[in-house]
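User: Show me an example of a complex going from sequences to structure tokens.

Assistant: Sure. Here are the input components:
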Amino acid sequence: MKRIAAQLVKKRVYKSIVHFVLVATSLLSIFPLLWIITTSLKTKPQYLANKIGPSWPITLSSIENALSSANFLKWILNSFFITGAAIVLGTVIAIFAAFAITKLSFRGRDLLLDYSIALMAIPVIVMITPLYILFSRLRIVNTYFGMILVYSGITAPFSAYLLTAFFKTIHWGIIESAIIDGCNSLDVLIRIIVPISGPPLATLLIVNSLWIWNELLLALIFLPMDKTHTIMVGLTVHQSRYSINVPVVVAGLLISALPMLILYFALQKFFIQGLVEGSIKG
Amino acid sequence: MVRALRTRKIAPYLYIAPFLIITLFIFGYSIPSVFLFSFQRIQGISGEFIGIANYKHVLHNIEFQAAVRNNLQLLIIVPVLVSLAIIMSVFVFEGVRGWKIYRTMLFVPYILPITVVGITFGYIFTLRGVLNEILKFINPEFGIDWLGNPNLALWTLMIIIIWKELGFGIMLCLARLMSVSPDLYDAAKIDGAGWFKLLIHITIPQLATIIEFFTIITIINILSWIFAYSYTVTMGGPGNATMVIELFIYRQLMKWSIPKVGAGAAASVMLFLFVLLLVFGLLKSRKRMIYEIE
């Protein structure tokens, strides 16, 4: 009897420790985000008086300020546009390539796959010097076109690889029946394969748009003009110039993180799964 | 032995053409060129070959030396990050009430853009910033310059990177733990294994391939994917206290009116070759992991 009681106490203590550790770490994990939210709702004097916690009354003035400052809205739009275009372009290219690798036969098929895998390993930093020179000579630095090209090209190998892995699992039977019904290769791709590719396409969407939206290095280099900045570049450059009004800058930070945060909280499971699997496969 | 659709002979090549064109344009030009440039002095369009002069110049450069030192020091993150990931994943795996909520919160740092994280922690760690304000409750005299003190700045950066990257490691380990058969644990518990023994003899061996994978990925990240941290938090400063190789390469390209292409290329090549070695290790590790999952 005593032993059982002792064991129960032990278990309780153990569970309490687990809870404690989890709560502590979770708080540390989300504190900066909470701080960003509470700071965005302050005025500058409110912030100077209380930098840590929430202030009362909350105000939307800093957020309004951020939205109307300089080219802020333009930057957000730029990011949306560039991310969207690069995702579409990169994914379409990857779908075609993956389809060919898995369902068609041609010389150098295996080579192409190995080539694609090799490209995924290259860190972006290594390519900025030659790419900048190339783009300068072609006069496409500081163009949306150039930026989209870069992002599409860089995400294409990973997308192609993920789709290849998925397409390989598609049973030939479905394709066979489509051929019997008179489909050509393009029909098979568009009518059969793409519609059932929801999961990998969702993964690609999440992983790639997160990466492109958050990306800083390439955006700094290829879109250096104020009007064409992506939101991340705009925030970084803006911050060093106007670091005096903290709540406004932080409001900008909040707004810029919002799209991804909303996506995350809405699709949690997909997100975590996708990012984890995406990087294992990548 | 793979079935293939019958098509016009040219069809497959049309399908792969866009992919080839864009990747050859972006990658196919870059990699050979960066090697080429590293042996040249570029002036405008033309470039004369100057052998390994760029490499010598870069290796003697104080900024570069500081950058390499810093990147190496930052590698301390690896064991810390891996250990914390294992420990935290074990705690989450316990499955206490509300564990999914904890999991959601622990992953938030990974979702935030590095730029946002960098600027935010800039405000938190600054001399009159949030952290010092909090610490003032304990000791009113407190005033550590976490980012302005050259001796502390890199350590502070380390903390920021760990904070952000931990969530990913936890999810990796957690995913692996969830696929472990509970029978293993049950059998051990019947044999009287305590919490610690379970950890050492079952959990960690099961996580072995994940640990290997995560370690190599983290090393690669610290060497070649932390530009945004250094740029947004301290811009490499104070002095060269938080200079990293990526930032060095960036500065060679962007901070001079005429880009120092040769130097940037030389540094890029050196970094690239080193990372390549690690990537080979990673591929081997990944093969082991995928084998294990299947």
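The lines above are the inputs; the final block is the predicted structure for all two components together. Chain A is about 80% helix and 0% strand.
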